[in-house]
Each structure stands twice: as structure tokens, then as C-alpha cells.
Amino acid sequence: MSETTGVKPPSLWRNKAFTLLWSSQALSDLGSSMSSLAMPLLTLAITGSPIQAGVVGTSAAVVRLVCQLPAGVVTDRIDRKRLMLVADAVRLCAYLSLGILVLADRVSLAWIVAINMIVTVFHVAHENAQFGAVRNVVPLDRVPEATARNEARGAAVSLIGPPIGGALFGLARALPFFTDAVSYLLSFIGVSLIREPMQQERSEPREHPAKELIEGVKFTLSEPFLRAVLLIAPPINLAFNGMIFAMVVILQQRGTPPALIGTVETIIGAGLLFGALIAPRLAQRVPMRRLIIGITWLGAALMASAALLTGSILVAIPVALAIMLGPACNAALFGYQAAVTPDRMQGRVMSVIILVATSLASLSALLGGSLVHLAGGPVTVLVFAGLMAVAAVAATISQGVRGMKPLSELQPAT
């Protein structure tokens, strides 16, 4: 049951606006997920250089970090529905152009990098607008549940998207990019069908973009719960990403067959998907403060236990159990964030949180590989478990987390 009453609330799937928003973002994410594998495969096919393939991926990652904060400002200045439609239209045209270039055998590395960077910019804008729109299409006390359903969507898409992209590329190099274009067309149609407003009326005068950006950063740092998120999210992301990368390196060093290493990643992916599927129920039944603190401590314990299994593919089991808890934790964190942040600042606050949470994770592969080389597998696993424990301590002692109230007792921030 929900935190507010003993009556089971109606399913969010009966909410037409949320269903359209969820489905549109699923299609948008599916296109991005397919291209995440097809793009490097295309680069390798035309250049034969793993380094140049790495340049494509790195350029997209850098662009994503650089445009995160400006995207938050843009999201808060422009109608969210319009921004999502523009983002889908631009990505549709970008992938349609890439498919045509591939068919004509005129694609080059420069074209791939340019299109990938354009797509990344508008992916960030679409994602940011969608985050802010959720609390306007569902009741405030259902936002954590809606966020959990979004987590399930992301987990499912991340599992099925790359294999689909790879299979389509194997049939014809241009096919995954034309399919991506179709996915963005369907997303465009879905968003256009939403009639409910995705934001509150904007009555305040616009300031200079730089001033609005500073305002968003200041608000994030001044609100106790949001400060707590900035302390909790980065070590969690670094711990999970670093642990998974380190596991692959450790098993490879021990001569584990590639097929078995793939099985390990499949088990972890399945754990993430199962966790995302049960996250909505946890978000409904467990108070958010207990959810955050309990999940971080249990995750740290499970990750530490993996140190005993680093030489076996069984190491995937405790890691999968730990990562299974992640979607419910995210649902609590980002659901409460939506409640305490004014609607007019949703984009900027989310951009600050995402930037801080993901920038540290970009070091995960370097840290994981270095630790395995210098200290060995068990120590590496314990280091990442320790990072998870840091997040657990931060959640336990944080006044922002300890002071969380049921959403039914909160007035939406204005």
C-alpha cells in the first residue's frame, strides 16, 4: 500500500499521460541503446581502428558531461513538451542521414563523430525534460513509483537494445540507424499525443542563463536532502561500475572463457532488471528513508562478500543481488528530489545531480583496472564495497535523509 492510506492506489498504467510519456521515452531509449553498439561497430568497419572507435565513444561521453548543466537551464526555460519533440525530430533526422550515408558508402569518421555528438546533446535534453515532466503527469505521492517504473524501462532497454542493434548491423550496416530513426518517430508521435501540461505556468521573468544556472546550483547545495543526494549517489555509481569492470578483468586474468564472462554480465543484467521490476512495489510499501539507508548498507555487505568469490563466476551472484537494490534506491532518491524541488528548477537541479553522480563514475574503469593490477582481486572488491559503505554512512548520518517525510505530508515545492 502507499504511504498515505491503506487503499491500494490505481495503477499508473491507467494514467494516459504517464503511459504515453513512459512509452515514448522507452522508444527513445531503445534507439539510443541500439546505436550504442551499432555506432562503434560502424566505426570499426570503416576504419579498422579500435582507437578511432574509442574516439567516437569518448567524444560522446565528454559532450554529455559538458552539456549537462546548460541542458538543465534550457529545460527550465523552454516548454518541456516542445523540447522533447524537437529532440526526437533532430535525432530522427540525424540517424536517417547516417543511414543514407552508409547506404551510399559515403560515411566517414568525421560524419560519425559529428552525428554522434549531435544525438548526444539532444538525448541529454530529452532525458532532462522527461525527468521534470513526471511530477506533472502523476500525483506527487506516486512520483517514486513512477521513477521506479522508469528504472524498469531503462534496465529492460539496456538489455535488449545492444543485441538488437548488433543483429541489425549484421544484416545490413545501415539498418540499425534507420530503425533508430523509426524509434524516434514513434517517440515523437507519443509525446505529441500527451494533452496534460508537463510543467507549471512560468510567471517569473527570465534571468541571464548564467545567473539561472548559478541559481540552480545554489538551490541544490542549500537544500539538505539534495546535498545528501550529492554525497550518496557518486560513490554508489563508482562502486557498481568499478566492481563490474574489475570482475571482468579478474576473470579474464584467471583464464575464464569469454562465454562464461558473458554469463557473469548476463546474471548481473538480470539482477538489475529484476530489481527494477520490484522497485515500484518497494517504493509503495517501504518508507523512503528506510529504503535508502537499508539498501546502501545491504549493498555494501553483499559487495564485500563478493571478495570471497573473485576466482569464480559465482562472484556474479552477490553483485547481482546488490545491484538489484539499485533501482529502488534511485526511485526513493529521485522521487523525493522531485517533491522538494520547485517545478521551475527541476531541469537545473537534475542536471547538477546527474553531473556529479556520473562524473565520478567515469573513473571507474581506470580505478578498477589499476586496483586489480596493484592489489589483486579481493582487495579491489573490498575497496569498491568500502565506497558503497561510504554512501551508507552518508545516508545514515545525513539530516537530509533522516528528516525525510512521507510525500503525503509535503507540499509541492514552488
From TrEMBL:
<feature type="transmembrane region" description="Helical">
    <location>
        <begin position="228"/>
        <end position="251"/>
    </location>
</feature>
<feature type="transmembrane region" description="Helical">
    <location>
        <begin position="348"/>
        <end position="367"/>
    </location>
</feature>
<keyword id="KW-0812">Transmembrane</keyword>
<keyword id="KW-1003">Cell membrane</keyword>
<feature type="transmembrane region" description="Helical">
    <location>
        <begin position="85"/>
        <end position="103"/>
    </location>
</feature>
<keyword id="KW-0472">Membrane</keyword>
<dbReference type="InterPro" id="IPR020846">
    <property type="entry name" value="MFS_dom"/>
</dbReference>
<dbReference type="InterPro" id="IPR036259">
    <property type="entry name" value="MFS_trans_sf"/>
</dbReference>
<feature type="transmembrane region" description="Helical">
    <location>
        <begin position="257"/>
        <end position="279"/>
    </location>
</feature>
<keyword id="KW-0813">Transport</keyword>
<feature type="transmembrane region" description="Helical">
    <location>
        <begin position="379"/>
        <end position="397"/>
    </location>
</feature>
<feature type="transmembrane region" description="Helical">
    <location>
        <begin position="291"/>
        <end position="309"/>
    </location>
</feature>
<feature type="transmembrane region" description="Helical">
    <location>
        <begin position="315"/>
        <end position="336"/>
    </location>
</feature>
<keyword id="KW-1133">Transmembrane helix</keyword>
<protein>
    <submittedName>
        <fullName>MFS transporter</fullName>
    </submittedName>
</protein>
<dbReference type="Pfam" id="PF05977">
    <property type="entry name" value="MFS_3"/>
</dbReference>
<feature type="transmembrane region" description="Helical">
    <location>
        <begin position="109"/>
        <end position="125"/>
    </location>
</feature>
<feature type="domain" description="Major facilitator superfamily (MFS) profile">
    <location>
        <begin position="17"/>
        <end position="403"/>
    </location>
</feature>
<dbReference type="InterPro" id="IPR010290">
    <property type="entry name" value="TM_effector"/>
</dbReference>
